[in-house]
Write the structure tokens for this entry.
Amino acid sequence: MEITVDYSKRDAALIARICKADQKALEMLYKHYYNQLGRFVTRVTIREDIIDEVINDVMYVVWEKANTYDNNCKPSTWIFGIAYNKARQAVRDSSRLKEESLNELDEDNLLFEEFNDNLKKLEITDWIKPALAALTADQRTVIELTYFQGLPYNEIAVLMNCPENTVKTRMHHARKKLATILINASN
Amino acid sequence: MKHANTEKPSLNSTHNIHNEVWQLLPWHVNNSLNKIENKKVKSHLKACTICQQEIVRIKQLVDLVANKSYEATSEAVIDANFSILKNRINSHTETPKAHNKITTHSQKIFGFRLGKLTQLSLPSPALAMAATVLISLLMPRLEFNSPEEITFAQFKTLSNSEIAAVKKNTVRVIFLDDTQKTDINNLLAFVNGHITSGPTEQGEYSIGIDAELTIDNVQSVIDNLKKNSNVLFAEPAYTTLITEDNCEC
């Protein structure tokens, strides 16, 4: 478990400066959050090729909407809330692309078999990635925010804009799925 | 479920507490539960081996995933990516909404259009010129050719015409411009009339009817005149057909 330090005051001050079009403050906030957002986006989307694009989308929204931050939640919750929405959008886009590419593969059985073989090789060498991939984006988000960002469930509920019980339910299903995969992998 | 404590709470209540605690375990592991919840979990963990094992599993999973953790991006890459974001921000000539709380009335009116147009990064004189060209292209081409001048003589009407001398049994008539004199004379003979004055500048004739006319037969004379294709207008010379003779006032 990573040690999380509360930088709320620092981040709130930076957001206040961003409200006054202070690009230096944006740069500081960008650098503070880059790796956290990068890891979060990677975990939720299971894609590394779009990290930079999604992070810049998130921070662009921070720049544009800084005046809408009302201090009702931690700045990190607000920023991760934006990141959650952007990551979900990316997941939707990528599923659409995957669907399209699978349709193309359906037309060529040889290519589809090759794709399956590669997937099997990947599962053998790196099971944790497919394990996380087996979860929904929402379940991965709860896992990431709980285990790796150290957020309480009520804050995750605010961030994901859903009831607290929904967060607990998503975590419950994610744990069950991961436990099953973990058992199968160890066998 | 194995409970080590000597107290024997009801099965349902124990089951409910176990389920509740089991759901809270991830947040117990990340130390984010409030004091009451934390106390409840700790108390339950003393007795429940299932939950104790689950905590071990959660920690194993966290460690496993942490080993595959995201590799921190180098400072240089972060700087390069921020430059991209900065360019994106600066490419919008309009100040972002967040930093533009005070807007003038005109900005509010044209806010949408200006917002869209300024995304083209046009300097303001170029913007004004572009707008002018756009308006001139979009405006329907109106023809402002001056119509052929209509002379006073060509404007035919009996209204407001000046009647210098109003006489009994007189009607006012305007013939078409190309009406021949002989046609007029034939028509006058038909209604037992003669020209008393005219034509005026507007082509109006005052025609005296030779017979003594009553209200009814004045109307029949006018009807006969109007049936003729050469007659443009035909009206009684009197606004009312009440003459001095039959006026009761």
Q: What stands out?
A: Chain B is about 50% helix and 10% strand. Chain B has three domains: 11-67, 95-131, 155-236. The radius of gyration of chain B is 52 Å.
